[in-house]
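Subject: for your reference before the review

Hello V.,

The reviewers asked for a structural picture of the protein, and I figured it would be easier to keep everything in one thread rather than splitting it across files. Below is the amino acid sequence we used in the manuscript, unchanged from the supplementary table.
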Amino acid sequence: MVELIPHPQISGAQLQTLFDYRLNRIRSEMVRQGVSLCILTNPISLRYAINFDEYQIFQSHIPTCYLFLPVEGPLIMHGATSHSLPHVTEYRRPNFLTPFDGGLNLTANCEQFSQSVMDLIQDNHLGDTGCTIALERVTPLATQALTDRNMRVIDAECVIESAKLIKSSTEIECIKHSISVAEYGIHLMHQNLQPGVTENQLWSVLHQVNSDCGGKPNNVYSNDGHGKIKVWKIFCTGARPSIILPQHQHAIHKLALDHIERLD
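And here is what came back from the structure prediction:
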């Protein structure tokens, strides 16, 4: 069996401190830029703000989920299957803002979306009219619906990227661990590089190392709401890694037994 990279010794309290730090960084940047509310859809921004990690590639193309992050007041997540995200106090069904989710006429959905934004601003006393909303990339109809209500709209991605510029000590430890895992996976790819191997076979080695060291398969992962994951692509498409590292065979078999009955 090949030795794996040991997980960093980060306690639950340290993780909570990291989550607190990130939220404070975002809100400090919101205050600096005069932003009353951030509406986040980018999976990278959502991971930073609330550790959200569901269907990242899907979410980047079709933003089904979004987060209301006010400069003051509770965070509200829309569309998540997991209901245990840090700092989120309320979970709601989203107003669908893409043709994939909401059909070809999005006007009514965008009006409902803008009304929910207005309700949150009033409930949290963030200003009556003319306040600044930081919005990540969605349909222009949503932006128009907000500006029609006399709101100023700016790009939320710039706010989040500014917040991410200064790292905490725990974040630095996490970054070092991620680099070590990537380097280890690449090392095993080199070991399996031989005549006849395909590119997909080599990539499968890196993906196995990433998953075994605590990473998420970002294009197939979601939470079933009970603390377990659904790796639906593997079972629904028949996709399998072509090279199975010995230390992963038992884990893959157990994953199938644990989760295949939940795939519906």
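For the response letter, the relevant points are probably these. The beta strands are 37-40, 66-70, 75-78, 88-92, 132-135, 152-155. Residues 171 and 264 are 37 Å apart (CA to CA).

Happy to draft the paragraph if you're swamped.

O.
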